[in-house]
Hints:
By secondary structure, the chain is of the alpha/beta class. 28% of the residues lie in helices and 23% in strands. It is built from 14 helices and 23 strands. It has helices at residues 20-28, 43-48, 75-96, 115-122, 136-144, 164-173, 186-195, 265-273, 281-284, 303-315, 333-341, 359-367, 387-399, 417-425; strands at residues 5-9, 31-36, 57-62, 101-105, 128-131, 155-159, 176-180, 203-206, 214-217, 230-234, 249-254, 276-280, 294-298, 319-324, 351-354, 368-369, 375-379, 403-407, 434-439, 447-452, 465-469, 475-478, 484-487. The strands form 5 sheets. It has a 5-stranded parallel beta sheet with strand order 3-2-4-1-5, with helices on both faces. A 5-stranded mixed beta sheet has the order 6-7-10-8-9, with helices on both faces. Helix 3 crosses helix 4 (115-122) and helix 10 crosses helix 11 (333-341). The model has no long low-confidence stretch (mean pLDDT 92).
Amino acid sequence: MTGRLYGVGLGPGDPSLLTVRAAELIGKADVIAYHSARHGRSIARSIAERYLTGGQIEEKLVYPITVETTDHPGGYRGALEDFYEEASARLAAHLDAGRDVAVLAEGDPLFYGSYQHMHKRLAHRYPTEVVPGVTSVSAAAARLGTPLVEAEEVLTIIPGTLPEEELTARLAATDSAVIMKLGRTFPTVRRALERAGRLDEARYVERATMDGERTAPLAEVDPESVPYFSVAVLPSRLNQPKPEPVRGEVVVIGTGPAGPLWLTPEARGELANATDLVGYTTYLDRVPVRAGQLRHGSDNKVEAERAEFALDLARRGRRVAVVSSGDPGVFAMATAVLEAASAEPYREVPVRILPGMTAAHAAASRAGAPLGHDYAVVSLSDRLKPWAVVADRLRAAAAADLVLALYNPGSRSRTTQVGLTRDLLLEYRAPDTPVVLARDVGGPTERVRTVRLGELDPTEVDMRTILLIGSSQTQAVQRGDGTEVVWTPRRYPDTNR
Length: 497
């Protein structure tokens, strides 16, 4: 009979926060294993010390390196891999001899814990039990005395060792967060919080439940004083006082062509930070409802009025997000807002534009790569410009042999534009030119298919459809699985040869 392997969570540091099961197993295991640095001291052992019997075998698993460099041929990772192999072999010898082994782990054994490296190497070979422990995340929240998350908020756990750009993106996109592994990473984490506009919310917790515990606003912490056993916390935004901006602003946000999957982290963060959301009601419905945030929906045909309304809110000190589908600068709200903001009385109101995934790019990705070479983007709507202008631009693009991305092809009141466009382009393009019809890309009724220009049926096109019309070089190819992909070569033939 082999022994049993136990991964025992010790909690965040206070020995009284061990679970009853953890204390029981520590007291009866034949072998107690714990990690330590080369100095020999082990925080895990110090937490569990009161539960040891004194007659147990102790296996000290001493890391060969922690943060310093190494001359190991496999580098830092290679040195640790060799250590984990050697350590798991030592524990396996005890298990093979029938001894029960308890591996001590601060916090929870499977939450950024060293025990997991033993678990991956031994759990499939021996009977194993993992005893969960109170994490430093829960301990930090308890010490701050503030909820981490409420209602539909999302909590993100982030290692501070990520690159600054990645930290910034994740912090901007989430509701609440805990950033682990500070120490040397603290300056990077602080900059990321500031860039994400979250520094004022951030709290610092050091050695939660242990001797030397400290909490403070993170912005006030000296980077030189930060140990590894500390975390940064962005607590729940609900029921927290939301500071009013000293000066209001308008942020025009592109939400992409459909739902949250198309939203950038920066846009997600700005939507969360806004005091007011302004937009076409259909687009506002794609944005989650947040407590304390005001929503101002309107009809799709009042862009100028919507822009002035948003700017008026900002003049009163509000932080306004104008919601736009796709990219706000492509046939969308950025132009309307900037036009109004360039005149009195709005010239002093700060305005920012955040990009979004365009409908053309989303549709192209579904079909293959039809926009792989030069292309032109044209709106077929003649509501804001004469049809003669639209036709002239179509002729110019067709004569230049550009791929065309056609927005706003039709509506209940505009039923002739697609047919006119088809007939016009057939003067320049072959009837078998590929045409991608992409409707509701990313939405629940998405449909993307490819037809030929000569067969394009205007009755199959509506306002939610975008058309991608190939150049003379665009290919539509049947692949081995039966699917058809559309792509435009990056190299254009040299007609002078």
